[in-house]
């Protein structure tokens, strides 16, 4: 028997340009676009949020695994970059609509050996929920479309 944990989130467009109010568990976050992209610059845009979510998930996984494995570090900075070709968003069938590549750099402040840091990062990526969702893909199903 599969033991699944269920998560929910809601996204609602606000009255302000491209701003969207997302919420889950009663916690609200504004997602927006910069002014030069037609937004009001009141929050990260969806792709910035995707990179940030990946970074947060990697950080949380690292913290949990470090405690389990006895891997000691004083500080970990994770820098993320993604390349997005806007032609995909604009409908060019030859260009994937989404990130073409995401790069992740890990900087540890630690007395651990570099080889041990690299092994630890492999374990983090193997166990990181968002990393695996991006790398392995996830089936997205449209359950319903309703006219109100």
From TrEMBL:
User: Superkingdom, according to UniProt?
Assistant: Bacteria
* Protein name, as recorded: OsmC family protein
Q: State the organism of origin.
A: Limosilactobacillus frumenti DSM 13145
């Amino acid at each position: 028997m599969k033991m699944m944990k269920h998560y929910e989130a809601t996204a609602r467009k606000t009255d302000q340009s491209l701003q969207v109010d997302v919420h889950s568990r009663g916690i609200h976050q504004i997602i927006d676009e910069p002014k030069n992209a037609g937004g009001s610059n009141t929050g990260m845009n969806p792709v910035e949020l995707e990179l940030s979510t990946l970074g947060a998930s990697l950080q949380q996984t690292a913290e949990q695994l470090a405690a389990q494995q006895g891997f000691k570090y004083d500080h970990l900075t994770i820098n993320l970059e993604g390349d997005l070709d806007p032609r995909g968003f604009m409908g060019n069938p030859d260009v994937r609509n989404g990130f073409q590549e995401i790069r992740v750099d890990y900087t540890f402040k630690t007395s651990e050996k570099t080889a041990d840091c690299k092994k630890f990062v492999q374990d983090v990526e193997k166990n990181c929920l968002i990393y695996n969702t991006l790398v392995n893909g996830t089936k997205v199903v449209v359950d319903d479309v309703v006219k109100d």
